[in-house]
Specification:
The structure is a homodimer of 702-residue chains.
Chain A lengths: L4 H5 L30 H9 L3 H11 L12 H18 L16 H10 L5 H21 L2 H13 L4 E4 L15 E5 L4 E5 L7 E4 L8 E10 L2 E11 L11 E5 L12 E5 L2 E4 L9 E2 L5 E2 L5 H10 L3 H25 L20 H33 L5 H32 L1 H5 L5 H8 L9 H19 L4 H18 L17 H8 L2 H23 L7 H9 L2 H25 L4 H21 L1 H6 L5 H18 L3 H6 L5 H4 L7 H19 L4 E2 L7
Helix pairs in contact in A: 2-3, 3-5, 4-6, 5-9, 5-10, 6-7, 9-10, 9-11, 10-11, 10-19, 10-20, 10-22, 11-13, 11-14, 11-19, 14-17, 14-19, 16-22, 17-19, 17-20, 19-20, 20-22
Chain lengths: 702, 702
Amino acid sequence: MVDTAQRSTAPKKTLGSTKPAVDTGPVMVAGHPGSPTVNVAALNRQLLGTWADVRVRARELTARPELHRIEGQSMEEHRVRVLAQLKILADNGHVHRAFPVDLGGSDDNGGNIAGFEELVTADPSLQIKAGVQWGLFGGAVLHLGTKRHHDAYLPGIMSLEVPGVFAMTETGHGSDVASIGTTATYDPDAQEFVINTPFRAAWKDYLGNAAKDGVAAVLFAQLISQGVNHGVHAFWVQLRDENGDFLPGIGGEDDGLKGGLNGIDNGRLHFDQLRIPRTNLLNRYGDVAEDGSYSSAISSPGRRFFTMLGTLVQGRVSLDGAAAQASAMALTIAITYGSERRQFTAGNDTDEEVILDYQRHQRRLLPRLATTYAQTFAHDQFLVKFDQVFSGKADTDDDRQDLETLAAALKPLSTWHALDTLQEAREACGGAGFLAENRLVGLRADLDVYATFEGDNNVLLQLVAKRLLTDYSRKFAHAGTGALARYVVAQAADRAYHGSGLRTLAQTVADFGSTARSVGALRETNVQRELLTDRVETMIGEIAAELRPAGKLPAKAAAALFNAHQDALIEAARSHGELLQWEAFTQAVESTQDEGTKQVLTWLRDLFGLGLVEKNLAWYLINGRLSAQRAQSVTAYIDRIIARLRPHALDLVDAFGYRQEHLRSNIASGAEKERQDEARAYYREQRASGQAPAAEKAPKKK
Amino acid sequence: MVDTAQRSTAPKKTLGSTKPAVDTGPVMVAGHPGSPTVNVAALNRQLLGTWADVRVRARELTARPELHRIEGQSMEEHRVRVLAQLKILADNGHVHRAFPVDLGGSDDNGGNIAGFEELVTADPSLQIKAGVQWGLFGGAVLHLGTKRHHDAYLPGIMSLEVPGVFAMTETGHGSDVASIGTTATYDPDAQEFVINTPFRAAWKDYLGNAAKDGVAAVLFAQLISQGVNHGVHAFWVQLRDENGDFLPGIGGEDDGLKGGLNGIDNGRLHFDQLRIPRTNLLNRYGDVAEDGSYSSAISSPGRRFFTMLGTLVQGRVSLDGAAAQASAMALTIAITYGSERRQFTAGNDTDEEVILDYQRHQRRLLPRLATTYAQTFAHDQFLVKFDQVFSGKADTDDDRQDLETLAAALKPLSTWHALDTLQEAREACGGAGFLAENRLVGLRADLDVYATFEGDNNVLLQLVAKRLLTDYSRKFAHAGTGALARYVVAQAADRAYHGSGLRTLAQTVADFGSTARSVGALRETNVQRELLTDRVETMIGEIAAELRPAGKLPAKAAAALFNAHQDALIEAARSHGELLQWEAFTQAVESTQDEGTKQVLTWLRDLFGLGLVEKNLAWYLINGRLSAQRAQSVTAYIDRIIARLRPHALDLVDAFGYRQEHLRSNIASGAEKERQDEARAYYREQRASGQAPAAEKAPKKK
């Protein structure tokens, strides 16, 4: 037996260490002559981003066992535990950064989200329940209410004295919030709003805190006064009495067990002619006077609606960051295990091969690592933008629209990527990956709903596409329809002519038909930028041209024309989001100081960028952007980059900076290495002693 | 309120009905003039396949509430329930078809698997625990043991008097079974085998029935006698006494909570010099005499090993079928819900659009429906092959190898597809899809491990690739290396020449550069076959040429060369599996009698085939199989097929024949349609009465 007692109790990952804490064994030749070295501590700091200090402090908090998920708890036990954990967060002040200074907060929007995102490592249920309480419920009071609401409600919200519900979604309306059925009809005689649920589909649904803990709610309803519907507004509604029973006029039920996040008591609410005071309207963007007359500083109902909803963008911001963290945890677990686990001898006499040395295993994990890096860097820029808008530093209409578009572009990509990565990591760890003790299945189950809540991913990408179309049409607005049509025609003719060659790139890159030369070109930052940018612009340009007749069609026919391009639009939006990530990654590479780290990050960025080109290779070929020969070299070059990155894989996940207290994954604890070492020592000793049984001789071949 | 009481209790899906039980509403114009009609009853029978009667009877069984999963049970409760359900199956005889007639079975291998697969609708835990007991544990006694073992053990196994463990996998060895560490050393003095676990990595792990219920085990260990290791053999080992306590020399622990399948008590076992009688060796393929001399009818240790493992192929067969069923259930739920759910008005004045009428929604669900059909038809052929081999009707070495290859090609594709489809279905149902009451999340959690147990999907595909390489090299064996080299060179030259045109298809299809003409060609069965077949053959041919030097290299260098092509090999194997599915689908279409059904199935098959071409479009372009113009028409044509299939979507899922007792999904019960109807009626009445509040007037545009 190898003495492994000392290793087994020590946490494996050490934050800020410049060397991986794991013995990487003979195949991990990161330091062989000519190979660059990653400065793990510096890279860790870079990955932590603008609010690195907040994150480091948050990770001390999330390392505390009392905040951790206990796998296997019943839904009821889990709910009780998470509510108690919320009290720890409230007492600690961790969740108060975004609230006003005069109420005990620190007006720090970016830092607040950074700290909030880190909670995902403790328990995604804790994160999302905290998000419901302080982000959605508290955020709605803060952003949609006025001073009287702040003074009356925020202290109780911040302290968790008043757990609350963000009652927006209904059974019948999720993505289309403008069409919710709940009504708030003003009664001037009583100076009250009458809240009513007209039919079953208008029940509020999927609401965190609604099944059990919610004492009050910010309720969204159609505001009707003097016979006019002024659209969706938010109201403060008391839900339960001191005993936790619904007040008269309110009913509800439990959503019950879910695919994950079962520490949160999601539920349904319905209202039967419930009366609330006029002043319960959160009236920052619209108000009703005692006589029932409506007023708003924003005259357009549509713009008012989007302004109100826009204040809630922080949910999407934080999901983007949390999803990137979940991907990073999954890859830390799978790459650590893959660097220790051995299976099949692969040409060796005795020793089995480390599974991360198999090409397929690398192909499964390293491109996902590249994407996770891209998303981490993109998220930090996104968070800076969010902070600028919400702090008022840069808060024009354009800034808010850009922030919305960023949110709609990035949140879908990172949440889908997290699910994909958690699943691939789980499969890459085999049966061990399926055990709850190794965390991957639980994280995946919890993260699942991130793809559809706070904006369904497909719906969000469609919003991005519409914004791209608008920008595109503005670009050509001065040229008139004639010029646009000419532009599109010219483009098509150009493509037909250069059908087997290059179009846009013809000016910047010469294709000599040599694979080596092609590979060199694809490695250039400007070539990647051109390829990725051109694709988005061309796709949007083509769709815009095809949608052009819609303006002259009846509404139904125009909708049908739009619908016939919906899939292409969403694909274009996705490519736009990927381009944003690539740009963020490239900026991060450019700002990296350490030369060795910069080299490895450049490879990783190339892997991300060329991975996007490979994924859409048919498009580049069909549209004449890449010749067949050059296209073929993309995959060959990706294989080469992956082989180059392999020795740095552990450094690259160690740089995420998670400790075993965050990972809490048995297979990432060094236990697998202990087992492998013990088994290898056993066979080594047996061979040395001459006690090994002989292998049965195979019969001679005929 | 609309009176919906009657509908809400009636099961939605009616087996054998030629009309969908759901009112399809005005957009579902399946019967519009010129549109074909699907004969749902006949198609249902066709999908049920060769053992349709067994499946129909099994579905009566799986409709029984006492066999159903209760969502939200604790692991302990779930385990108790599933064990009790196993007793129902044993008493019912449902699981005895594969056992010998003289022991109360019916020697019906195909029917046994068909019936077993259907259990997935009741609870995947029930299915897999039944599979452990009667498929793996019982199957090992049946196939690896001899008469004395059959007589002694099979009755107790069949009746569940002796719940058992299939103890093959170890913590340290999953895919590489040949390298397990557990030893069974023969002691001629005592005429006993000594079972021993030499180190922690050799603990048996992930074993169903091991944590709690297993009384005995079929244990796999290295058989060592007279100083020679004869490789992995199976032994009968008693594990626990009447009190459920481990016998002396045996230890173990619980694997605890898993990502799914928590009705099964997976656990670990280890052995400390445990002595068992010599006759406990399951000695069909290898025996040890009293004096310790070893004998086997199969002289090659390698072939013996694969023969022994080959008897256990039924696990892969049944997972392939169960996965196809899970996909079918997911699509039945999502397409039913998508046909009732409405969101956004999309150009209508008042009525919201049914979400399945959105192009993106169709693109998400209908190609997956086509793949599920292909997998269902391919599975039936696979099951027929299995039945022929195991009944001895066609049981040559080649047959067994073909069966192994089929299993290794199909099981990965269908299990991955099930996970992908369950997830897409879950997201397509939004928040409702995340509730346990709608089944999708639970099924996905349970099916997760299907991708890595009974053969890791990536490892299986690599086996397929090796078989394809072997077949390929045999094909050219007579030609010698010279001819092969010339072949490869000729191929490369050909590609360079026809780089922007067609190669193989040049003979069969003229490309006139017209999109219409191209679309017509792609629709032809022979063109699809040619495109799909050519890809597999070319990929394998190219890899074979690149691997050719391996024969002359040292083992380590040869392994490195192979490893550098591992990813490409696995992709080729996947394409081979997809081709098999396409062929099975095509045969099914050809054997369809009803003309309307045949037309719709042809579209669905085209969607599957062209979807494969679209997925690999870059390959077809790079290799000159499709021109850029023709390639572009692939996506356009897929869009057209999807629009054509849309009106038949409900018929196509109804043809799977699941009733609400099988689906048990609230959102597929008609409840959503009730809610939508009620809401629409409310607004209709409000408009008719003149009581609707007016919309706030938008301000005039500047």
